[in-house]
Amino acid sequence: AAAKGLAVAELDQSLTERFRSLKLPSGWSLAGHSVKKDLTTPRETVLHFAVRHNLEAFTGHLLTLPGADVVARLSNEQGDTPLDIARAGGNDRLLQQLVMFTNQNSNGYLEEAGDVSEGVSVSE
Description:
There is one protein chain. By secondary structure, the chain is mainly alpha-helical. It is built from six helices and no strands. It has helices spanning 2-21, 46-52, 56-62, 68-71, 82-89, 92-104. The protein starts with a helix and ends in a 20-residue tail after the last helix.
């Protein structure tokens, strides 16, 4: 278990450093090119991946990128938002990070950490 934790920590650090060094083109969005057109089609995103694999630093970095507010509300094909995945995964630090981000970027949709993903609607 300790070796797996070390591998996850190394992956987390490596991905975070590599993404920080990327020179992203103007207009780039974490949500992809269809962010304005299609906010309801379920899809797996890099944020879903980072949360599922407990990549705390990488998740934190992704949340600073354009489009993070949209991606944080997207469900994957299983109907799970990144917050749902964090809640199910039991990583309290990651869950709190997502709760804080979602509450700060919810436009009044969310109020409490206990019921963060319920009742969220996207109207753009």
